[in-house]
Design a protein that fits this description.
Helix content is about 80%, strand content about 0%. By secondary structure, the chain is mostly helical. It folds into two domains: about 100 residues; about 60 residues. The radius of gyration is 35 Å and the shape is rod-shaped.
């Protein structure tokens, strides 16, 4: 009988030990889950910061680029600062960065993967506008030369205001 009691006590002790081990494992699992959540939050925060910086850079480039195409007011609107000193462009970057992050977009990867293409676009756009202006000037000169009977002289390069000076200087 004594042996049976000892076995049941050992079973009780073993059960208690087992319960303590299970509880300890649950605490460790919960701690590991918290650590993992903190790490995920840190990574998401870093991605959101990179997205805000990338968006801010693109928005800062938008004003001068669009001004080249006859939309100078875009830069004024985006550059307007509110009472706290934040520009509208910065505000756009701050509110859209979490949206990009939510969908897994990483602006730093975009810049890395497409850096050459983005650079080519921003270098080419002002040149394309200058070419457009030069062609439009040539069209106006040609039209004016074809219609001398109206008493108008063909415009000279220095008379055309939308042609860049270096283009105007090269024209006859």
């Amino acid at each position: 009988m004594e042996q049976q009691e000892q076995q049941s006590e050992m079973s009780g002790e073993q059960a208690a030990d087992l319960q303590r081990l299970v509880s300890a494992a649950a605490v460790q699992e919960n701690d590991a889950s918290k650590v993992q959540q903190v790490e995920e939050d840190r990574v998401v925060g870093e991605l959101e910061d990179r997205n805000a910086q990338g968006l801010s850079m693109l928005i800062d480039l938008a004003g001068p680029t669009l001004a080249q195409f006859g939309f100078p007011s875009v830069g004024v609107v985006l550059g307007y600062k509110d009472a706290s000193g934040v520009t509208r462009g910065q505000a756009l970057a701050l509110v859209w960065a979490p949206v990009l992050t939510k969908y897994g977009v990483d602006m730093s990867e975009l810049g890395g993967k497409y850096k050459a293409e983005i650079t080519a676009v921003f270098v080419s756009l002002p040149i394309a506008k200058a070419l457009r202006d030069a062609v439009m000037h040539d069209v106006r000169v040609k039209r004016a030369a074809e219609q001398p009977e109206q008493g108008q002289q063909a415009p000279k390069a220095e008379q055309v205001g939308d042609v860049p000076q270096e283009v105007a200087a090269a024209l006859p």
